[in-house]
Design brief:
mainly alpha
Amino acid sequence: KSKSMGTAIYYCLQGIQNNEIYSLSTLGAIYGTQENYAESFKYLEQAAKKGEFIAQYNLGVMYERGNGVAQSYAEAARLYRLAVEQGYSPAQNNLALLYYVGLGVKEDKQQARGLFQSAADQGYGLAIKNLDELF
């Protein structure tokens, strides 16, 4: 673990003691990049339950990929939807892909297109690419 990563973890833990929701989400993301999925899940779940949309998205990714949890496209879709309700374009893109292929949700190309478009309208490059390639 690098010194800067250790410093980041230290400040996140300080933030958590001060009830800073973003510190929970950030620490969960840090552990996720280190493939420490048990710790990642612990912090992301706490932040997601408090409504933090990046944590909801990252937890959705864990469920979609089966990283440290039993793979569940339905749970990934539920979590993405929570982040979508807050306008988070990466979640819009990922939920759109689930609708496009019918994983965890009923296949719905129109719903997928609308979600891709919403993310593209925010300038999210991957959604622009998916919209162009899939429609």
